[in-house]
Specification:
Elements lengths: L1 H17 L17 E5 L10 H7 L4 E5 L7 E3 L3 E3 L3 H12 L2 H7 L3 E5 L2 H4 L11 H11 L16 E5 L6 E5 L17 H12 L5 E5 L19 H14 L4 E5 L5 E6 L8 E5 L7 H4 L4 H7 L7 E7 L4 E7 L6 E7 L5 E7 L17 H33 L7
Parallel strand pairs: 1-2, 2-5, 7-8, 8-9, 9-11
Antiparallel strand pairs: 1-13, 3-4, 6-7, 10-11, 10-12, 13-14, 14-15
Helix pairs in contact: 2-4, 3-6
């Protein structure tokens, strides 16, 4: 009888041994003083996931996904993007959630996030993507979004969180640049409803520190990227004008997408302090991993350089970012860091919010960026076709048409 009792108990408890842990939502930190926030983007689930062990060991109070949580779309010859089926997308999220390294992070911190294009389901995707709503629900399910979260009913996944008590209060504002993004080149990024929401979030805020998250970069103007806020110039101008209008205290921006880490800043934001942007991208893959033999470093110094980047403030290998908030000084400050796959700090800058901004407007001068971007894309595409098609064809042609030696 005792043996049967033990067997029944074992069978009842067996599922819990294999159960995947759930994410802790950021709402659980509403009364918690937040000292460290970690963030990152661009994760391929078939690659080594050990960076999440390093993130867990850094003991953040919160982890923020900044997009490309998984790479669900398929690329054909680096040119054509094929969206995934929804079961394929969900399977990739489940694979990530089943990773022991990611579970180690889930066990020590609260987690939230936003998507970018590859987890949205379509490369450079916009509002025309037909599976945007089921894709949204799959992402929220992966994040274990609470049942009463407004994100389930919103036209997108934008959300805000208020963490901590007065005097040590952080407001995190996460933007969605996919769901309502206009399909025309340079069109609106957020959609009218999200713009109204953002204005309300900034106007009503009494937080001591504000962190705005975007999956694509906000400040860069001159670097050659297919996607950034400067290409959507009116949207970039609009968000900077909202900051100028409502003057939220101690605001900084965190972004992803580019497969390297960097720290940028401008004193022409209209705020009473310099506006900083901290970019972390490439959890499992990086610029230096893709462009070898020093090519990535060349690109970062030349084609991907930007006047807003701080001197020597770029890291081209796998990375994650951390923001350490110093509540104990006379003036609240944030130490922004980019850390490598082992958790070692590779870039660091103290943001003290007392660098008085200059009496100037942020640069909006037109740059013919699309021509240079298109040129770079054509070069990449041409190189791909040469490797895959032209060179083998030439080799076969030479073999077939090789002249026969003349008979004596």
């Amino acid at each position: 009888r005792k043996m049967w009792k033990c067997l029944v108990t074992l069978l009842i408890g067996l599922p819990s041994l294999f159960a995947v842990p759930s994410h802790t939502p950021l709402s659980k930190l509403e009364q918690t003083t937040v000292n460290r926030i970690a963030f990152g983007s661009c994760n391929k689930v078939h690659k080594d996931q050990r960076i999440f062990d390093s993130i867990a060991e850094s003991k953040p109070d919160a982890w923020i996904w900044l997009g490309d949580i998984v790479y669900a779309d398929k690329e054909i010859m680096n040119v054509i993007s094929v969206p995934p089926s929804m079961p394929e997308l969900e399977a990739m999220y489940n694979q990530l959630k089943g990773s022991q390294s990611y579970q180690n992070l889930m066990n020590v911190t609260a987690i939230t996030g936003i998507w970018d294009d590859h987890d949205y389901g379509k490369n450079d995707g916009d509002r025309t993507y037909q599976d945007r709503e089921p894709s949204k629900r799959i992402l929220l399910k992966f994040l274990d979004e609470e049942n009463d979260s407004p994100r389930w009913e919103r036209d997108g996944i934008y959300q805000s969180y208020i963490l901590g008590s007065p005097g040590k209060r952080v407001k995190i504002i996460l933007l969605d640049v996919r769901y309502n993004r206009e399909e025309t080149y340079g069109g609106d990024l957020l959609g009218e409803t999200q713009w109204q929401w953002l204005a309300s979030e900034l106007e009503s805020s009494d937080a001591d520190v504000h962190i705005i998250g975007s999956s694509v970069q906000v400040l860069p103007r001159e670097k050659f990227l297919k996607e950034k806020w400067f290409i959507n110039k009116e949207s970039r101008k609009k968000i900077l004008n909202l900051l100028k209008k409502f003057q939220p205290k101690r605001t900084l921006v965190i972004t992803g997408d580019v497969h390297y880490g960097e720290i940028l800043s401008t004193r022409c934001s209209g705020l009473p302090y310099a506006l900083y942007e901290v970019t972390s991208s490439g959890l499992t893959h990086s610029c230096s991993g893709s462009y070898k033999y020093g090519l990535c470093e060349f690109l970062l110094k030349d084609l991907w350089n930007d006047p807003y980047r701080l001197p020597q403030a770029a890291w081209s290998w796998e990375n994650f970012g951390t923001l350490d908030i110093d509540w104990n000084s006379d003036e609240i400050s944030v130490n922004a860091s980019i850390r490598d796959i082992n958790g070692t700090v590779r870039l660091s800058h103290r943001i003290d919010f007392n660098n008085i901004s200059q009496d100037c407007e942020i640069e909006e001068r037109e740059v013919p960026m699309w021509k240079l971007v298109a040129k770079m894309e054509l070069i990449r595409m041409a190189a791909t076709y040469l490797l895959i098609a032209v060179f083998p064809a030439l080799f076969i042609f030479v073999l077939i048409c090789k002249p026969k030696p003349k008979e004596k």
